[in-house]
Amino acid sequence: MKSLQINHLQVCYAQQTILQDLNLQIQDDDILCLLGASGCGKTTLLKAIAGLVPLTQGTIVLNQRDLSQVPVEQRKIGMIFQDYALFPHLTVAQNIAFGLGKTPKTAQAEIVAEMAALVQLSAFLQRYPHELSGGQQQRVAIARSLACKPDLLLLDEPFSNIDSQVRYQLIEEMKGILKQQQVSAVFVTHSKEEAFVFADKLALMEQGKIVQFGEPVELYQRPHSRFVADFLGSGSYLPCRLSDPQTLESELGQLRGQSVLTLANGQPIDRLKPLFCLLRPQMLQLSITGKPNATIIGRHFLGHTFEYQLKVGEQQLSVYAQDNLAIGRQVRLAAQSDLINLFH
């Protein structure tokens, strides 16, 4: 079984700790995203996996092989950079073949043809990088990395220089290629949208630590902290109180959980501390029928829907709705009770 295991990893520069006691694991052809703000340590972690920075402590194990003493060139790890790192004086074919130096020429030609077909560049093999679009240059970088049959592919902000109009098409294409080739990947981004589309597993980082790890939908729907909740999407925190172990009372009325309610991190609720329920816009339902409990105080037309700002008691909440409603209108607002995330 293919796997990447990182155990108790620590990296320090000049007596400053950059990565602290990191642990994570991916298997088979998983795509892992390292997500976080600038300076959180995600690129340092990528470099540590590649062997470009020394480890202060811990181990990195790829396919049951401890990489601690393995030189960079022997790790069977491919890398794709933000700026593509193509050689401007080489053709597409020559760029793809660059890492195949010891492979016989006939075999090289076959691999180049195969990789070019894989990334839909067979008609561009004799062109130079400056004759290609950004998306096409990124495809060349992908083909060059995969030509060497890596056990793992590392990608550092691979989509940041791609036009937004074609970015998500390229993300879908690259994900399909990696799955087809059964190659695991770790990629760095600061864009949660890219992470949601591309990743099978998501590690959200803050100040050199992984604060939550799991599938993207799990982190979005079940954040363990306010930091995770706020980083991954907009939402409001509605004051509430616990009336019984499964029921909350709030300005929106009762919210009843499917089991005994706990804090989002699994800890028990302290009844002596203020309690707040995270409500994302899509967790709320706006209705023009029923007894009003909210007033529209603002709105934004988003093309496919409206985003409304509503005043509920002393609180302000956001909700999406298809109806074209006027500011000042009173409406009925209700919340889904199957995704209750509570914080002190």
TrEMBL record:
Keyword terms of this UniProt record: ATP-binding, Cell membrane, Ion transport, Iron, Iron transport, Membrane, Nucleotide-binding, Transport
Residue ranges of every copy of the ABC transporter domain listed in the record: 4-232
Domain of life, source organism: Bacteria
Gene Ontology terms: biological process: quaternary ammonium group transport
GO terms for MF: ABC-type ferric iron transporter activity; ATP binding; ATP hydrolysis activity
GO CC entries: membrane
Gene3D superfamilies attached to this UniProt entry: P-loop containing nucleotide triphosphate hydrolases (3.40.50.300)
Full protein name: ABC transporter ATP-binding protein
Species per Swiss-Prot/TrEMBL record: Testudinibacter aquarius
Phylogenetic lineage: Bacteria, Pseudomonadati, Pseudomonadota, Gammaproteobacteria, Pasteurellales
